[in-house]
Amino acid sequence: MNIGQEGNKGRIKMAEIIDGKAFAAKIRAEVRDDADKLISQKQVKPCLAVVLVGENPASKVYVGQKSKMAAECNIKTKDFKLDASTDQETLLKLIDELNIDSSVHGILVQLPLPEQIDERKVIDTIVVEKDVDGFHAINAGRLSIGGAMLKKAFIPCTPLGSLLLLKDKVEDLKGKNAVVIGRSNIVGKPMSQLLIEESCTVTVVHSKTKEIEHVCAQADIIVAAIGRAEMIDANWLKEGAVVIDVGINRIPITKEDGSEGSKIVGDVDFESASTKASMITPVPGGVGPMTIACLLRNTVTSAYRHADLDDPRSI
Ligand code: NDP
After folding, report:
1. CA–CA separation, 291 and 108 (whole Å)
2. Contact, 161 vs 291, CB < 8 A?
3. What is the distance in A from the centroid of ligand 1 to the CA of 182?
4. Among 100, 190, 202, 274, which residue has the least CB neighbours within 10 Å?
5. Ligand 1, from 207, 211, 212: best to mutate by most atoms within 8 Å of Cβ?
6. What structural domains and CATH numbers belong to the chain?
7. Residue 263 — φ and ψ, nearest 5°?
């Protein structure tokens, strides 16, 4: 599909919905095939160690989903649940053990961590070759350098998932104007670097950007990673833009029976943006499922690398 495709005359044009749930299922099927091949060729079962410190409810749900989907992909998981009061030394000792455990190919420490623990210290203690979240300073550096270095890196899962969705839908990313809203190390920065690598012309905007709406309205591609519920509406968009909504925000709602509840929305006002975008990811069901699929993909890639084999898939 071409960016900027026109709808039927006289009708309100609605964007094509990018189905991240279906695409993530396809990625997981590939991951399972790759895991099966490794098991039959090398008798090695990919294994992900998942470390959860504390009782953050969202983290617990997320970790549970990871383990379930890993099992479906023939990836073994080792779960480590530590008390919220765990000190940094204890956590680092566990990571050291996992670093030298040859049966473990990926180590994931669920963020956020309790405040007594230095997140950066923990991330950089994970051995680079098992950093399947791609947050280690060396993996971030490899992504930043790009080219051949990118092939050695692990790419953070949410930006990787967002890029795979884009590449599936947009025939040629070269030369497209892309605006990434947000500059976090987890999403915004790596996303912008991936888009540069795809030869997009990339602008990163954030909370201090002046005339941010005007900048966004020049974009063929918008990636919203802000953490502000439904902030981006049609007024921010160029006609025909492709919109990737990374945001996950829980907002209060009043249910039909009058009781109070909540729902998950993105950083983009889906209804409004759909009238102007050519394609858009929904929330839920867009980028979210891709994140776990890419974590599993990175884990199997790591198992291949540990077995001295080429990566089973490229970006
Ligand atoms: P951070 O809070 O780390 O970063 C948010 C970024 O948005 C910052 O760069 C901030 O700017 C910018 N920002 C905040 N307010 C505004 C504003 N009013 N105008 C412009 N820019 C603004 O968040 P994350 O990157 O970790 O996450 C972003 C969103 O993505 C969240 O909703 C999160 O839940 C979601 N997420 C979803 C994942 C998934 O699997 N789908 C995975 C990870 C995150 P500044 O730097 O100036 O403060």
Report:
1. 13
2. yes
3. 5
4. 100
5. 207
6. 40-155 (3.40.50.10860), 157-289 (3.40.50.720)
7. -145, 160
- Is any atom of ligand 1 closer than 6 Å to the C-beta of 187? yes
Catalytic, 66? Answer yes
Distances from the Cα of 283 to the Cαs of 19, 229, 269, in angstroms? 10, 11, 10
Active-site pick, 34, 76, 131, 133: 133
| 246-254 CB contacts, 8 Å cutoff, 24+ apart | 246/158, 246/162, 246/182, 246/187, 246/191, 246/287, 247/283, 248/283, 248/284, 248/288
pLDDT of residue 62: 87
pLDDT at site 1: 45
Which mean pLDDT values do the consecutive 10-residue runs of the chain (315 residues) have? 49 90 98 98 97 92 92 97 97 98 98 97 98 98 97 97 98 98 98 98 98 98 98 98 97 95 96 98 97 98 98 94
What does DSSP assign to residue 288? H
- CB 188 less than 6 A from any atom of ligand 1: yes
- 48 Cβ inside 6 Å of ligand 1: no
CA of 8 to the centre of ligand 1 (A): 35
Q: Write down the pLDDT at residue 295.
A: 98
Determine which one of 66, 76, 189, 276 is catalytic: 66
CB-ligand 1 contact for 247 (6 Å cutoff): yes
Count of beta carbons in the 10 Å neighbourhood of residue 129: 18
Q: What is the pLDDT of residue 2?
A: 45
pTM above 0.90? yes
| From 34, 110, 130, 238, the catalytic residue | 110
74 neighbors 35 (Cβ within 8 angstroms): yes
Q: Angle between the 287-306 and 20-42 helix axes, to the nearest 10 degrees?
A: 10
CA distance 245 to 252: 20
